[in-house]
Design brief:
CATH topology of the largest domain: Aspartate Aminotransferase, domain 2
Strand content: 15-25%
Distance between the termini: 44 Å
Number of strands: 16
CATH class of the largest domain: Alpha Beta
Bound molecules: pyridoxal-5'-phosphate
Structural class: alpha/beta
Length: 415
């Protein structure tokens, strides 16, 4: 069998594939401590809400048949668009209508469509780039562009925030807009738990507007749902911002529901692309949450159950780290949101992939940090920090997290 250049590009080993393979191979395996992967926690109160909602759909006349048996438009159901637009304008005063919304099969696919629509070979033969203003960034973007050279990034500023705690910040002096067709960032950031400050977002939005290009903000963990943000920051949207949202981290990852809020021209473009690649998105997630958008309870669930759940987990995990790591020279990225902690071992001479392999042998799965640094200029090949960090998903059972951290401490101490 011969693969095309497109095929080769996606078949070759990618960081995201290793991660997904590990998840599949080790999840649920007796004795394995699963601190890798991006699975959200199964929160009992939230599970109960989904169970009840599904029971309601099953009982309610032909609602199940309609949910499962009909295609919607190529970007979802009009009832869903209107309910979400109404909620966003009620909650934040954003001037959005149903025409500003599209549903795509998972926000991973939304990003694939957006990045390839905006980067790669342009009609005039130029090479369009996507700028990532804050490294490290979500591993799942790294291999998404059909043109492997599409992503450009640069080193962040690193601020010591408190003893054994730091925070990355956008180093605006390093930005080079040459050939850039879009700026993108996750907020909160997977893997670090960083939340771009309001000032950083407003400067990035101004920069994008000045160059007449979109700012794509990936809100998979953000406001209003799932709302896993522990800082007091403002959600923003304007005609130049493409906001990517998802139902995954509120507990519905298997419904594959990604949502885009953008100007009408962008929504029309996505609608055309989505028709070609998937005909129509799944309607299950849209139907599950529709009444909760209408009465606003999706926001209540996020604020009153989901966010406090993760905040408590994050705080407890940080306490465990302090107990387990003792005299190691480590630093934790300030936990501002998302479901991960990002740990930096300053004396990790062997590198994070080596540490990952040693941990795997001892039954602890984490994600090595170097996958999350991409698009950097060649001169940063020697930047040691890239090899000294790991990502830990703290949403698992407390006793597993604690045992896992003890083993991480022992292995990290070996260098
Ligand atoms: C930052 C970020 N964006 C997008 C996604 C993709 O989410 P989904 O395709 O389930 O909506 C993830 C998944 O972990 C993520 O962490």
């Amino acid at each position: 069998m011969k693969f095309s250049a497109f095929g080769e590009r996606f078949i070759n080993d990618t960081g995201i594939k290793d991660l997904v393979d590990d998840l599949g191979k080790y999840a649920g395996l007796e004795g394995t401590i699963m601190l890798g992967g991006g699975n959200p926690a199964l929160i009992p109160e939230v599970n109960e809400i989904w169970r009840n909602r599904m029971a309601e759909i099953l009982k309610n006349g032909d609602q199940l048949q309609k949910m499962l048996g009909l295609y919607g438009t190529s970007i979802g159901s009009i009832k869903f668009f209107d309910a979400l637009a109404e909620l966003l304008s009620r909650e934040y005063g954003w001037p959005v209508t149903g025409k500003n919304i599209a549903v795509i099969n998972g926000s991973q696919t939304s990003c694939f469509l957006l990045y390839n629509m905006l980067s790669g070979r342009m009609p005039d033969g130029a090479s369009g780039k996507i700028l990532l203003p804050l490294m490290p960034e979500y591993i799942g973007y790294a291999d998404q562009s059909i043109d492997p050279e599409s992503f450009v990034s640069f080193r962040p500023g690193i601020n010591d925030y408190a003893p054994n705690m730091f925070k990355y910040q956008v180093d605006f002096d390093r930005i080079n807009m040459n050939g850039v067709n879009a700026i993108t960032a996750s907020r909160p950031t997977n893997p670090t738990g960083n939340v771009l400050t309001d000032d950083e977002v407003s400067r990035l939005s101004e920069l994008a507007a000045e160059h007449e290009i979109p700012l794509i903000l990936d809100n998979a963990y953000g406001l209003p749902f799932p709302g896993i943000i522990f800082e007091d920051v403002k959600p923003v949207w304007n005609e130049n911002i493409v906001l990517s949202m998802s139902l995954s981290k509120i507990g519905l990852p298997a419904t594959r529901t990604g949502i885009i809020v953008a100007n009408e021209k962008m929504i029309e473009a996505l609608s055309a692309m989505s028709a070609v690649v998937s005909l129509a998105p799944s309607g299950v997630g849209q139907e599950m949450v529709l009444p909760m958008l209408e009465d606003g309870s999706l926001i209540d669930i996020s604020r009153d159950i989901v966010m406090p759940y993760y905040r408590a987990k994050s705080r407890q995990t940080i306490k465990y780290i302090k107990e387990s790591f003792g005299s190691l020279d480590y630093s934790i990225h300030k936990s501002e949101g998302a479901i991960f902690l990002w740990l930096w071992f300053k004396d990790l001479g062997s590198g994070s992939v080596n540490l990952y392999n040693r941990l795997k042998k001892r039954g602890v799965i984490i994600v090595p940090g170097e996958y999350f640094f991409f698009g950097l200029p060649e001169e940063d090949e020697t930047w040691e920090h890239r090899h000294q960090c790991i990502r830990v998903n703290y949403s698992q059972d407390f006793s597993d997290v604690k045992r896992g951290l003890d083993i991480i401490a022992e292995e990290a101490a070996k260098g």
